[in-house]
């Protein structure tokens, strides 16, 4: 499977979101962090901004819902233009039903796990998903240091995906940079969310290319 780089708009300049989205149009997806100040102690953007972003860029939107009651709110993000919607299993009342609803509405269904949430209790849910997100920091804020203790969890998750022969993506989010992406790729991740490593660079598009090259080098994946 091709490796993917998803810049996180959380690290962009919120006063120029349309320009910031265009600056990374060589990326695979644009990662949009939605926080409600309840599930996580931070408040970011919501449905209206996602709708505006979807009109401002050709890059598909990957919405990560760090919110309470995703069962209620996730469908609205699909209607706003999200091509992939990630809910946290810790917040979902009925994760299988929610994943099926997301798929039925035409988006990719993804489930996220906080660092302390193990993958094993959710093994049977994997066939219902298009992607699984292993958080490599505590959700809520950008710019945090990568948690190396998540690498074994990434490996176990990749093994479970292989066990069932699934064509699902394994995403990592949090502290992904030129210093950490190779370790994530070697552990089995194939979708990488990068915030400050992209938007903190002088040339965000070049940063995306460099991160992709490092991940491909770590896995022996030929460049596109």
From TrEMBL:
Substrate binds at residues 8, 64, 140-143, 173-175, 195-196. One of its GO terms (molecular function) is D-ribulose-phosphate 3-epimerase activity. It is an enzyme of class 5 (isomerase). Its EC number is 5.1.3.1. GO terms for biological process: pentose catabolic process; pentose-phosphate shunt. The keyword Manganese applies. Its cofactor is Zn(2+); Fe(2+); a divalent metal cation; Mn(2+). One of its GO terms (cellular component) is cytoplasm. Binds 1 divalent metal cation per subunit. It catalyses: D-ribulose 5-phosphate = D-xylulose 5-phosphate. Keywords: Carbohydrate metabolism, Cobalt, Isomerase, Manganese, Metal-binding, Zinc. InterPro entries: Aldolase_TIM (IPR013785), Ribul_P_3_epim (IPR026019), Ribul_P_3_epim-like (IPR000056), RibuloseP-bd_barrel (IPR011060). Pathway: Carbohydrate degradation. Coiled coil: none annotated. It holds the Pfam family Ribul_P_3_epim. The active site is at residues 33, 173. A divalent metal cation binds at residues 31, 33, 64, 173. The keyword Manganese applies. NCBIfam families: PRK05581.1-4 (NF004076), rpe (TIGR01163). Belongs to the ribulose-phosphate 3-epimerase family. Catalyzes the reversible epimerization of D-ribulose 5-phosphate to D-xylulose 5-phosphate. This is Ribulose-phosphate 3-epimerase. It comes from Streptomyces iranensis.
């Amino acid at each position: 499977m091709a490796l993917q780089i998803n810049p996180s708009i959380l690290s962009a300049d919120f006063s120029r979101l349309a320009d910031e989205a265009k600056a990374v149009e060589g990326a695979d997806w644009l990662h949009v962090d939605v926080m409600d100040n309840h599930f996580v102690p931070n408040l970011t953007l919501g449905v209206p901004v996602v709708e505006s972003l979807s009109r401002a860029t050709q890059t598909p939107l990957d919405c990560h819902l760090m919110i309470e009651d995703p069962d209620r709110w996730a469908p609205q993000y699909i209607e706003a233009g999200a091509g992939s919607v990630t809910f946290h299993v810790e917040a979902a009342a009925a994760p299988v039903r929610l994943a099926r609803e997301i798929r039925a509405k035409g988006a990719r269904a993804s489930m996220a796990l906080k660092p302390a949430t193990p993958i094993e209790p959710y093994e049977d849910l994997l066939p219902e998903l298009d992607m699984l997100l292993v958080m490599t920091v505590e959700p809520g804020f950008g710019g945090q240091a990568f948690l190396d203790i998540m690498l074994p969890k990434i490996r176990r998750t990749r093994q479970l995906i292989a066990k069932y022969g699934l064509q699902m993506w394994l995403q990592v989010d949090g502290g992904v940079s030129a210093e950490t992406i190779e370790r994530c790729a070697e552990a089995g991740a194939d979708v990488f969310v990068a915030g400050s490593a992209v938007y903190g660079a002088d040339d965000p598009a070049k940063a995306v290319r460099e991160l992709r090259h490092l991940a491909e080098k770590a896995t022996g994946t030929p460049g596109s």
